[in-house]
Structure formats: C-alpha cells, structure tokens
Amino acid sequence: MKTFVWAVAAVAAVAVFGAGCEKKQVVGDEQEPMSMAALSTLANETAAAKTQSATSQVSGASVVNATQASVTTAATIKPEVPLEPLPPSGPYKPTVQEVQNALKNAGLYAGEVDGKSGAKTKAAIEAFQKANNLKVDGKVGPQTWAALSAYAASASAETPVVVEKKSKKKH
Length: 171
Known about the structure:
By secondary structure, the chain is mostly helical. The chain has a domain at about 95-150: PGBD-like superfamily/PGBD (Muramoyl-pentapeptide Carboxypeptidase, domain 1, Orthogonal Bundle), CATH 1.10.101. Helix content is about 50%, strand content about 0%. It is built from six helices and no strands.
C-alpha cells in the first residue's frame, strides 16, 4: 500500500512539473505594438460598428447615418481647454495681507499692510471677533474669515506688500 501511494505521488509530481516544461504556443507573434493613435482609431471603429449593428434593426437609413456620424464626431473631438488644478481641500485660508486689508477696510487696523502678523494685527482680529459676536481667540478661522471676507472685497485696490531689505554690515 505504501508503494502504491508513493507511485501515485510520483506520477502526480511528474504530471504537475512536466506540464510546465513544454514550449508554450505564443499567440500573435506577428502582431506589432500599437500606438495610442492607432488604438484610438480602432476603438472609434469598434464603437461605430457596434452602433451600426444596433441601429441596423431600426427602420430608416437616416437614423443609421445620423447615429454613425454622432459617434464618429463625439469620439474624435478633443477638448481644447486645458484642465485647471483642483482647489485645495478644506476651508480657504487667507493670507496675512488679505486679513490686514480686510481689517483696515473695516476700520479696525491702523498699521501698515506688510503681510506680517504682529501684535497690531492680532489686536484688530480680536476687536473684530468681539464686535461680531465670534469666539475671541485672535485667529482667523473659517467663521471669522466668513464675516471678515465681506470687508476684503470692499477694497478699491490692494495695498502692495512693503518688503524691507536689511543691509549687511561688515565688522
């Protein structure tokens, strides 16, 4: 009995391992790689053929011709308008300059619009939050910006950012 089991196992092993040793028949050796344009044309022709066969059962030659024309036209039209990148996810985060301009337009910020968040900017934010019954934390979050952004739009022209250049002193 033991030899019978070993014989069956040996035959099964030869069958499993021997099956993978023969030369595989390669399908389509004569085919060349296709370019994207060729694939697109092939897809358009296939879609047109499917539409033609589906509409051939409908009576009237004008229906078939109109369907073929719309499939061919729709498949070959390429969008000429470049796609724009998606906006960042989450709420809009204004720049310090935008916040300072809005606070200045609201009459709460008397400092220079320099794009730097300092004590004057924080004090103006807190005054705005207090005046608008918002949580007073000195930070421009989504709720504060929702109220403050109305003043940002009322600016006639943006104030340029003043950048001070520090001179390098040699000792």
